[in-house]
Description:
The structure holds three protein chains of three kinds. Chain B is mainly beta. In chain B, 9% of the residues lie in helices and 56% in strands.
Amino acid sequence: MDCHFTEKISLLIDDELTEEEAKEATAHLSDCVACQRAHDDFLRLRGEINSYAVASDFVAQRRALRRILGAEKPPLWRRSIRLPVPACALLLVALISLGVWLAFVRQSMPVSKEAEMKPQKVLTRPAPAQDLLDLARFDRGERAAIYKVRRANQGDIEQ
Amino acid sequence: MKVETRVLIILLALVSSLASDGRFLSAQSSQGTPRQPERLRFRIMTIEETAGQRNVISDSTVEGPPGTDFNISLQGERFKMSAQFFTDMTGRDSLKVRAKLDTRRFYGYSEQNLPLYEEDKQNQTLDLGFDESVVLLPFGRNGGDNRLKIEITPIVSEKKERLPSGKVRPLEIDILKPSPGGVIGIQAWKIPHRFVLEASLLEDGREVARGTAPYLIEEPQELILRPTEQASPQVVSNPLAVNLTINQYTRSRPADLATIDFDIYRINPQSGQREAIGLNWAGIGEIDSSMIYDLGKVYLKESGKKYELRFRIKLAEGEQAD
Amino acid sequence: MARDNEEFTMIFNEHYRSLCRFLECLLGGRSDVAQEIAQESFLRFYRLEDDDLPTVEARFWLYRVARNLALNELSKRQTRHQLLGKVTEILRRRPPDPEENLERAERQQIVLELLKSLPEQQRAALLLREQEEMSYREIAHVLNITESKVKVDIFRARGAMRASWNKAVGISS
């Protein structure tokens, strides 16, 4: 049978009693067999729950981290670039000069109709990830399939 | 023939047998009959097919003794697949491959902004020759312009079962071409596959019905317990059957453990129909030891007798505990 | 500004495994789903603006989000009524030698089965206390309940697990 004090024992092992309450609980514990058993059982259960171990898969952990960081690179305009002031000034001057030079060159050269029509899509197409196989491009929501083929024919001759 | 000559001949025969790898006992049986290969290799190639063009994404081999199992996993951002392959030799040139596919596809968020997944499970058994391959299409058959394909090809290995030191050659996984970012993973293991299950119905500790059947790991199978001569008319008119699966095998000390799941049925002797009297029973027991279940609450309750179900799982011939 | 990579990596390495363990126990041993949810939680954390959450709060935020994500998973699983029966079977099948220790894997399975038999909130509270060593106040913060509710939940969880354990091994409490 449990003693009415057992709840206090639960709080005692969790360090959730005031100093005075803890003293009282400890004193009770030394006299009450039911509470001693509860105390031992609670600590044994703590040991059992605490010894639960997950498999140490550090490769998967690293992969998970890389995936999060890789998938979530902030857009360029949201990244902070810290350059010293002279470098910034130099960069600004270089950009303005480039812009002026480009405007001059464009005016002096006739623009062909063909070049004007050409869609400039190459840069906007996302480059395939270097280190990850993008599985999404194969996925059209279909169910996986498994079958056997004869090896003499490289094409799939389903059996 | 003189006694000395006979002794000499016997000694010579023994010496020559021992010299030939010490397998004098099996030499006779192996001569003339084709032997099973000592090691098998499975080549696992992941291929991207685009308009008939094949681009090999990853290439690996798993090598081990007959009965080696392996798992191919695919870990994408939104799609995960685990494909377990249990393999068994069924003849010199044939294999039985049991595949268990589990896929999990992320398809969006709920109203409470929680992720939702579509899960799918498939089991397939294929009888495979060494001139055949298994094709696994994680994303289905009609992939449009490009599709992902995993080819699994069994090959007879030239390697011996044992290393020159006499130790059993371990399983080997060779990654010939790793998949980008480790998206495709391969694991392999070797555990016993074939078992013999003995089941007995005990009445006050006395066997009154029994059944024995060969079992394959992960394959559910029905076993009927036939009444023995000692069975009472009540037991004879209430025969039992169990539908049991040996679903796990764990290496352990002092003995390995088998995990079982089973349902118990009472068979109607006239119609043969099964009436479930116990569902989803389970347990873990040591190989070659008894596992006893009390049937008091489900079988012939009014009889005043104690009924128990006893199982004993043994390894089938040729299987090794370790 | 989104979270700094270095700071994020530090938090990830510090809490990832513990979060996986918490989720695995909460979900009854489904390690693959636990890892997915842990990753999803970290991804959401990474997306947070720096100003939204101080780093000291990260741990509690992660456990709160992860637990909410796990709730969705749990609601999909059918309640199994014979869990205790199964545990009893596992334990009763052991040879009656008291000196023989149960294999670690089997013990883990038993702990999981016993945890599974608890209501989810009690289970979460007990796990945060026993594995993560959070105070009642911190648990209340993560689970969004009062401290007194945490107190009751943990005591009830312990009582239920203790009774199941003793019943399973045949000891009267």
